[in-house]
F5/8 type C domain-containing protein
Amino acid sequence: MAFCLALVLAIAGCGGDSSSSKSSKQDTPPEPRNVAAEVNGGKATATYDSDNAYLVNDGETEGDFWSGNVVGDHITIEFDKAYEVSGLELYTNAANNSSTSIQFSSDGENFDSINLLSGDCFSMQMGSGRITCTFYQDRRATHARVVIKQNAHDVRIYELIVTGT
């Protein structure tokens, strides 16, 4: 029995003084998430039918939707803080993107349109009620906006998902 106790104490003593060891824990990068989602602090407003603006960031990609009234109407989602945005998914019945413009802003005042077909997307898909874009380069943003460019009464926006860290 004494031998077992001595062995346990000897093993426990190996490795030196724990008070002199330094932590080697490294900071892990944040996981990408939907920074536009209401549950993550996103606040949706609209130039028309603002009472239903929340439908575009409620987590539901089917069913209820927001729709504009005239060309130029838009829906804006303000994030809870600035994020490095890496991509987007827009659920809409206008999945050819000729009826909408997707824009981002780092100040809530000046918006830049995403060029889906050339320049901004490393990978892009359109169709089946969805537009997706993974950016070549992350962009710092505090707001995302979808502007109706044509057929305002016919365009339905179901959900805007913005991936960021």
Observations:
- The first helix runs from residue 2 to 13.
